[in-house]
Amino acid sequence: MHRLDKDATVYNYTLVKRIRHRPLPLLLYGVLPLPAALFMAVSVSPWSLLWIAAALVLLPMLYGGMTALYLKQHGSNQRGPWTFAVRWPWLGLLPEQHTPLKTVVRIHDHILWVGLAVIGCFYPWLPTPYWIAWLALHVWYLIPRFWIFLLLRRSKKNGLLKINPRDTSFYVE
User: Fold this and answer.
1) Helix 128-151 to helix 33-43 angle, to the nearest 10 degrees?
2) Where are the beta strands (DSSP E) in the chain?
3) Mean of the pLDDT values across residues 52-63?
4) Dihedral, CA atoms, 42, 141, 83, 17, nearest 10 degrees?
5) Edge to edge, what strands does the sheet with 167-172 contain?
6) What is the model's pLDDT at position 10?
7) Quick one: pLDDT at residue 108?
8) What is the rounded distance in angstroms from the CA atom of residue 164 to the CA atom of residue 168?
9) Among 23, 29, 39, 66, which has the highest number of CB atoms less than 10 A from its own CB?
């Protein structure tokens, strides 16, 4: 039998729910903005394609920055580091280890409402099609994450979330 070091920490987690990231639905969801972008390019301006492409690249960086600010202000009790990852549906700053579900949900609530407030501030100055496109892209990025939170809503709130490349798992201690 293997003996543990006297200073070793042992964690016992029980898997409650695993949500697999299926490639086909994620691919179809990822292609969803293309018809809207083409419609904007034809009806509004060809420059719309450039702005939408820039938004697709910059939004995860902005969300990562907002997550980093939140963690700097409120994350003193976080387990382990957070790193920037590009894995759909989780784009942006992600925890490398098990993280409390409440923390991840709270961060995404902040991202949702701060993003809506910032987009709302630009309403008087942006043409309506661009404003609607910003709003749609903001919501489009966050819907898969909130869908996962919706699937986990019946689980205990004091559990831990582990985000892997192929699935999101929810554990209780």
Assistant:
1) 170
2) 14-20, 82-87, 90-95, 99-100, 160-163, 167-172
3) 84
4) -150
5) 14-20, 167-172, 160-163, 99-100
6) 58
7) 93
8) 6
9) 66
Smallest Cα–Cα separation from 63: which of 134, 138, 164?
Answer: 138
pLDDT in tens, 72-103: 888 656 667 888 888 888 888 888 888 888 88
d(CA 4, CA 19): 32
Amino acid code (one letter) for 172: V
Domain boundaries, the chain: 18-172
Write phi, then psi, for 120 (nearest 5 degrees). Answer: -65, -35
Peptide bond just before 89 cis, omega within 30 deg = yes
Q: Helix 47-74 crosses helix 101-121 at what angle (to 10 degrees)?
A: 130
158 Cα distance to chain centroid: 20
CA angle 163, 168, 173 (to 5 degrees): 80
Question: Average per-residue pLDDT in the chain?
Answer: 84
List Cα–Cα distances, 97 to 8, 119, 162, in angstroms: 17, 32, 6
3-class DSSP state of 82:
strand
